[in-house]
């Protein structure tokens, strides 16, 4: 690719002085027709140049036969033309001096090698002319903040574009439009929405970066299939967090099927979902499972201040509804607020005795009238209580749902908050009895949900967001030198892998490789009993599965015999396996086996892992993962989040184990794999035996896989 010259910034891309619509028509069944109509309809203030050879005007606007005949070079061009015409159109725009082009057309890198080559070609054309590209295979841009739509979605056929303070970047155009539409039906709008498609030129982080700095945006939503530039992404995420703007993400490809679908959709190499999740944790992005949850979360975050404490007050019309809500909240570990004396006093005017301090509050149990009568004063008291972080109001079906909701809204709106209102959310349970209430809430621009489940997920989102602590890059341990990886290649067995681990200060047990029983005896004589004998073979990955590990050997004679017997057995069972020798080593004992490992993620680079060791790792999938390198403190927090953590802390009087030593090992391994560079593929230290507190830990098995690249950079 050519060097990127100075390009138009995203902010200017959203305020073009002129827009050319290539393929414009009046046919609303076509992309170009809808896009053009919507651009006109939503009041874009600049010049519109419809490019159409057959007509003199469209919707009363003068057309131009080609892009080079417009009165001024258009700042922006949108093309919805057949794939085979895209290259020519890009070239024409680039030559005409267009600053940016949106390519809606698909079947480029999302459709195999030939498409990818064409995509690279058009990027080259654009870049060499200083023109930016959005897409291809995207649905364009919606910028309510600028009354600009460069998008053909039917979701935009509305009288007025709903404005809001949520920015969105979506790899899928259809999902962007769906989210936009769904949000719109609940009265929620956006500042700017970008669909980025194949990200051939402009990428996710270009738009995230813009939204971080954008004064019209308070919360950033992203739908991601694959990250092309991990550093750019991580950097914008960190900047967002530092500027106090929450970034929410939904990532496709959590499963193998999802990953395959994401690849064929926008040619995104999914990388592993776990690695992406680790990157989110590291930078403070809130990762959610679906886009509906994301939109409600973003709405709450854009309309309210972040909760100052995790405690929740539940205000409901039904004892049953309150009980179910309380159950769900306690599943999440979210505390029910204990009200202040002042709040209890205020509620005492509405409820008798203990009901005045009960949480959930069942408004139906009021002593002064029904829910309508008490809702306004009750929510006021709750919103003023500093011990309440969030008010959740599930309203069950009743004849007066609308009046109840109105009371709540009146109360909430009358509570002035100096630094922004704390979040509160009404849930109007599904059913027609709530229809008028929902309509009223939409009209008044109030955030609500019609599903308790969705509302609970918002509470969960706030909980998780508060727990996210963005991490600084760790400091390299003093005196730790980077190893020379040039001599390491292919699959390194236990002995060779342990040499590298030891260089990084990871404790390993003593061992030596031999070919003969006699020499094995000699080695054992120099070591401390008991001993272990293991086969050394590039063809045997799981040694113990084939009888390639013998433990508990007491004497040097036992060691010699074990070598003889193992050689005979493997000769019979695996005659084709190449046997490089036998590893004689010291046996260690410890209360717990853990696994420390690493791999190299396609998008986020070296990742370090720690989890339950031995066979448990496959059974329990109890693994914490983070981008390498990690500090010892970070490693400790990874370990503390594992399901086996209670065993490490000391389970049922068995005393605590050496978590510090394990954390140190995880950190050391992380530096090692970070230093090994792009040829690094995989490391397994399984098991790492963890002793009692103060006794340390030791890796008693290891494997390291390094690949080589040929002259053209292809992995061998
Ligand atoms: P593999 O994983 O290839 O089957 P290992 O070297 O991990 O072989 O050995 C299998 C198991 O034997 C380990 O999970 C551990 O329980 C035990 N083991 C192996 N080496 C030692 C040793 N030096 N000290 C104590 N236990 C060991
Ligand atoms: Mg092992």
Topology, please?
Layout: H1 10-13, E1 18-22, H2 31-41, E2 47-51, E3 57-58, E4 61-62, E5 76-79, H3 83-96, E6 100-103, H4 112-128, E7 132-134, E8 141-143, E9 148-150, E10 163-170, H5 173-185, E11 190-195, H6 204-213, E12 219-224, H7 230-242, E13 247-251, H8 256-266, H9 273-283, E14 286-288, H10 291-303, E15 312-316, H11 319-332, H12 341-348, E16 361-362, H13 371-384, E17 390-395, H14 401-414, E18 424-428, H15 435-443, E19 448-449, H16 452-467, E20 490-492, H17 494-503, E21 511-514, H18 517-526, E22 531-536, E23 549-553, H19 556-573, E24 581-586, E25 592-601, E26 605-612, H20 616-620, E27 623-627, H21 632-640, H22 645-650, H23 659-676, E28 680-690, E29 697-699, E30 703-706
Parallel strand pairs: 1-2, 1-5, 5-6, 6-7, 10-11, 10-12, 12-13, 13-14, 15-16, 15-17, 17-18, 18-19
Antiparallel strand pairs: 3-4, 8-9, 8-11, 20-30, 21-24, 22-23, 22-24, 25-26, 25-28, 26-27, 28-29, 28-30
Helix pairs in contact: 3-4, 5-10, 6-7, 10-16, 11-16, 12-13, 13-14, 14-15, 18-19, 21-23
Report what the structure shows.
The chain has 716 residues and is of the alpha/beta class. Helix content is 37%, strand content 20%. A 7-stranded mixed beta sheet has the order 9-8-11-10-12-13-14, with helices on both faces. Strands 20, 25, 26, 27, 28, 29 and 30 form a 7-stranded antiparallel beta sheet that branches. It has a 5-stranded parallel beta sheet with strand order 2-1-5-6-7, sandwiched between helices. α7 links the parallel β12 and β13 (247-251). α5 crosses α10, α6 (204-213) runs parallel beside α7 and α12 (341-348) packs antiparallel against α13. The radius of gyration is 31 Å and the shape is flat. Magnesium ion binds at residues 686, 701.
